[in-house]
Specification:
The complex is a heterodimer of chains A (about 625) and B (about 260). Chain A is built from 17 helices and 21 strands. Chain A is of the alpha/beta class and about 625 residues long. The chains are: A alpha/beta (about 625), B alpha+beta (about 260).
């Protein structure tokens, strides 16, 4: 296996133009002869499926929810970045590119990130044309807010529901194509296996979650836009259904997995309230524009926040990072919160929390202005905690939020399996070791609206459209592999529930492969994960049958794959002897506790090739920085 | 807290269902309603029984996947709250709860508390979009939109498509859902070219899906977790009326 990034030659700013010119085209009359499978209907999936259908390809789109509109992109709150420079504050494509490469701690490809910054402006145009109600000024033009990791205001937003509005735009475009018959939509359909024929991705096997039928679907190209794998930690800000199964099954069929250990811990989530906790809820990072983060200076200070005088509070982000302050990037803000809690200065019943205080902003701007900016977030906080954040500071704590790692793809978003494309959070591409706020929506839509329609066409122009029968031996083998897996899960009839395994795996990952990682901890995890997996297959209980709705079976199928992924994440974290972005190895830090990168040995993408149960081979794609100077990130 | 739950159990769309009773002896007030059901399900599965099927995904009130009737109220007793965001502190110790799926002809039960809401997607397919293909868009700031218009459009666009309005309506009408989309797009300049055909087609589709008619009871607005106003229905009716006046011409264009 060779990781060939296929980055076009030429100057950075001209690479994408050059790629588009060099891409082969499919004659308009021939497009309808090609079948495309899109798995996932979030920003990347819905945008890609709609855009490919508009070009005339026959698209089949799959999602496990009851409607494509449920995809978890919908939950993104804060906004979407674009280098429009509407605020006249010095933004440019180059600056967005630079901020993203730097924010990613120099572990992303320059060429991909530059293209992302270029396309950001087209995304805003497209979304506005669809009727996305972005916030505006009284003069009728679009407004922006600032966001973590940037010193310009380039974030477009629709109240605290930006992801919802962008997704509904893409969903509506998708429904328009479904109405025309250009897209065939399959809801409540979970991808269980990838079909590879003669080395090319040719289809998928899905389980119909209503009837339990196992169905094969074949096509000329397969695209996975199936999101991230944060739920390997059990508790995360992801939706309950988010899973790694689609990408993991592709990985087992030959797709390299890129940088699996790069996960993002978001600094502003509502702390867990007890054992029953089923997920964690994010409070948008945009809150840090007006909220000030603090803890008491003294350890174990249990006074209510209002009784702690100004002089006894430690606004630690403002103290440690005076130029970015409360807007420091996510990885830095999360780690700083963990540090103060580890010192015994955390707040709330569990001691795992810090204050996010709006008192100053309310005094300065008035409650109305704050309500206008964050009203729905404040309501959500009050519903969950029973506390009123206009009166008492919010309590927040970091939680797993996003996975920068994912299936390795080249510049054209194609994985190491020809004909298998990967888009959005599911691929590893643009965010390096840390994603900046408001960049996930940008990447998902860039991939879906503006990259796949060209790069998939280029691939299809090189292959003949061809039908594949259900009786092809490779199709039959994939179908029976799925049937066997389901039969084993249902037949084990052990003592422990799927959720109890998932929770144990999550604890293990949070403790050993979370915000801070050490060699000893990772080695411990690598001993315990295979043992847990062994117990799962021996002792899991999945009640009911495979022939109807079976929510326990759906969960079991996902946990099977998390149990394998977890091992690879720890392996990757152990091999990367440096700290960068969201990957913090306690052995590699500066005397004042900042991450210490090792550019001479680790300026590469790690691409892991599956070699059978618990064995992987590491391949590397060196990263070349020709346009930005590798430097130590400083937000001080 | 101790609670007694009467939960609708139904093995599939074509078999009869019935209430079954479960005790939830150790409920924490900090649990969400769905976390309380998770705990009940864990116990069922530990005993080798099948869990109660219910729909849910984001658990932060935005995906629109969850939805239950609790004591006859869609999404339970707290206003402006989806059931995933409803916390057990809203209930009293010892309370008895009757938990049912959305009830509507257009929403067949799949299993237990899970229903098929595909009809709502088909209403959107009928016209709930701006017909702009990727790549066609003009520069974003070339379309100025007044602040009031954008705020009102956003109020309507906040609909999460959960179906509580249908479940709460005595006629099982999907008017609030349909009107929210017609209003969102109809208030914006981008939505004008298709405004009347959109209203006509979406309302026609709503009827085809066997949703009932609207008699302005207003139960939908009370149940809506996003506070969508019934004013949107007035707007839908007005656009539909204008559209109907030219419907004959429309049909000729469509070649029906």
């Amino acid at each position: 296996m060779k990781l060939d990034s296929r980055i076009p030659a030429g100057p950075l700013a001209e690479k994408w133009d050059r790629a588009r010119f060099e891409y082969r085209l499919v004659n308009p009359a021939n497009k309808r002869k090609y079948n495309v499978i899109m798995v996932g209907s979030g920003l990347a999936g819905a945008a890609g499926a709609a855009s490919l259908a508009e070009l005339g390809y026959n698209v089949k789109c799959f999602c496990f929810q009851d409607s494509p509109r449920r995809a978890h992109s919908i939950a993104a709150q804060g906004g979407i970045n674009a280098a429009k420079n509407y605020q006249n504050d010095g933004d440019s494509i180059w600056r967005l590119f630079y901020d993203t490469v730097k924010g990613g701690d120099f572990r992303a490809r320059e060429a991909n990130v530059y293209r992302l910054a270029q396309l950001s402006v087209n995304i805003i145009d497209q979304c506005v044309a669809q009727g996305v109600p972005f916030a505006r000024e009284y003069g009728g033009l679009l407004t922006n807010r600032s966001f973590g990791g940037a010193q310009v205001s380039r974030t477009f937003y629709a109240r605290g529901q930006t992801g919802q509005q962008l997704l509904l735009g893409a969903y509506q475009a998708l429904e328009k194509e479904i109405a025309k018959g250009q897209v065939q939509m399959f809801t409540r359909a979970e991808m269980m296996e990838l079909i590879v024929v003669d080395g090319r991705a040719r289809g998928i096997v899905v389980r119909n979650e209503t009837t339990g039928n196992i169905e094969a679907h074949t096509a000329d190209v397969v695209i996975l836009a199936t999101g991230g794998y944060g739920n390997v930690f059990y508790l995360s800000t992801n939706a309950k259904g988010c899973n790694v199964t689609a990408t993991w099954r592709a990985h087992r069929k030959g797709a390299a997995f890129g940088n699996p250990c790069f996960t993002q811990i978001h600094p502003t989530c509502i702390p867990a309230s007890g054992e029953h906790q089923s997920k964690l809820t994010l409070m948008s990072e945009s809150l840090r524009n007006d909220g000030r983060v603090w803890v008491p200076k003294a350890k174990g200070d249990k006074r209510p926040p209002g009784e702690i005088p100004e002089g006894e509070r430690d606004y630690y982000l403002e103290r440690k990072y005076p130029s970015f302050g409360n807007l420091s990037p996510r990885d830095i803000a999360s780690r700083a919160a963990k540090e103060v809690c580890d010192e015994g200065r955390g707040v709330g019943p569990s001691g795992l929390g810090v204050y996010l205080d709006f008192a100053d902003a309310i005094a300065r701007l008035g409650e109305d202005k704050i309500a206008e900016r964050y009203g729905n977030l404040f309501e959500m906080y009050e519903r969950i905690t029973g506390e009123n954040p206009y009166k008492v500071p919010m309590r927040i704590y970091p939680a797993v939020h996003y996975t920068m790692g994912g299936l390795w793809v080249d510049y054209n978003l194609m994985s190491t399996i020809p004909g298998l494309f990967v888009a959005g959070e599911a691929n590893f591409s643009d965010h390096g070791a840390n994603r900046l706020g408001a960049s996930a929506l940008m990447q998902g839509l860039a991939d879906g609206y503006f990259i796949l329609p060209y790069s998939v066409g280029n691939y299809l122009a090189s292959v003949k459209p061809e039908k594949l029968g259900d009786d092809h031996p490779d199709v039959r083998a994939a179908v029976s592999a799925v049937r066997d897996r389901i039969a084993t899960l249902l037949g084990t009839k052990g003592k422990r529930t799927v959720a109890s395994f998932h929770r144990e795996l999550g604890d293990l990952m949070w403790n050993y492969c979370g915000m801070a990682r050490s060699r000893a901890g990772l080695e411990e995890a690598l001993r315990r994960i295979p043992a847990l997996r062994e117990e799962f297959w021996r002792n899991v209980t999945v009640p009911g049958s495979g022939e109807s709705v079976n929510v326990a079976l759906e969960h079991a199928g996902r946990v099977v794959d998390f149990l394998e992924l977890a091992e690879l994440m720890c392996k990757d974290a152990l091999h990367r002897e440096e700290s960068c972005g969201g990957h913090f190895r306690t052995e590699h830090q500066t005397p004042d506790g900042e991450a210490m990168r090792n550019d001479s040995e680790f300026a590469y993408v790690a691409g892991w090739e599956w070699k059978g149960d618990g064995a992987w081979e590491l391949h590397t794609e060196p990263l070349h920085f020709e346009n930005v100077q590798l430097s130590t990130r400083s937000y001080k | 807290m101790k609670l007694r739950l009467h939960v609708w159990r139904q093995a599939g769309p074509s078999v009869a269902g019935a209430f079954e009773t479960y005790d939830a002896p150790d409920v924490s007030p900090d649990m969400s309603f769905l976390e309380m059901l998770d705990v009940v399900n864990e116990r069922l599965m530990e005993a080798g029984n099948e869990p109660i099927a219910f729909d849910h995904d984001c658990r932060e009130g935005i995906c629109g996947m969850c939805g239950l009737m609790i004591n006859g109220l869609a999404h339970g007793p707290r206003a402006m709250t989806t059931v995933c965001q409803l916390h057990m502190r809203e209930f009293a110790d010892g309370e008895e709860l009757w938990i049912e799926p959305w009830r509507a002809t257009a929403f067949p039960v799949r299993r237990d508390l899970s229903v098929d809401r595909g009809a709502l997607d088909r209403i959107i397919q009928a016209g709930g979009f701006v017909g702009v293909a990727t790549g066609n868009a003009p520069e974003a700031n070339s379309i100025p939109i007044g602040k009031e218009a954008i705020e009102n459009a956003m109020d309507a666009a906040a609909c999460i498509g959960c179906g509580a309005c249908v479940a709460a309506c005595p006629n099982a009408s999907a008017s609030l859902f349909t009107a929210a989309k017609i209003t969102h797009l109809g208030l914006l300049p981008q939505g004008q070219p298709e405004r009347y055909r959109r209203a006509l087609r979406m309302v026609e589709q709503m009827d085809l899906e066997h949703f009932g008619g609207c008699s302005l009871f207003g139960e939908c607005m009370e149940a809506c977790p996003k506070g969508i106003s019934i004013d949107t229905i007035t707007r839908m009716n007005r656009d539909f009326l204008v559209a109907s006046a030219t419907a004959e011409q429309e049909r000729q264009v469509r070649g029906d």
